[in-house]
Specification:
This is Methyltransferase type 11 domain-containing protein. This protein is an alpha+beta fold. It contains four helices and three strands. The longest helix has 15 residues.
Length: 84
């Protein structure tokens, strides 16, 4: 990230990495969040039947992320600051 920002003309660059755990209470909460965010465009292009198939498939895949707190995912976020 630092090199990319240098290439496009930034200076005094600082990149910070934050790790966090994203937790959903259950699969239904996860599905609702995906409908509000990243998947909305694709879901709107699908038939109701296909959406249900995807939901069922997604719920099965989420089982590997289940723990006592719910469904959790470890994530990393980069924050970059610089002057142009």
């Amino acid at each position: 990230m630092h090199q990319l920002l240098l290439l496009i003309g930034f200076k005094n660059i600082k990149v910070i990495t934050e790790n966090y755990t994203l937790v959903f209470q259950n699969a239904e909460e996860y599905w609702m969040q995906m409908q509000r965010l990243g998947w909305r465009y694709y879901l709107n292009k699908m038939t109701t039947a296909d959406q249900e198939k995807l939901k069922e498939y997604t719920f099965k895949k989420l089982q590997s992320h289940m723990n006592t707190d719910g469904i959790s995912f470890e994530r990393e976020v980069l924050f970059a600051y610089g002057e142009k």
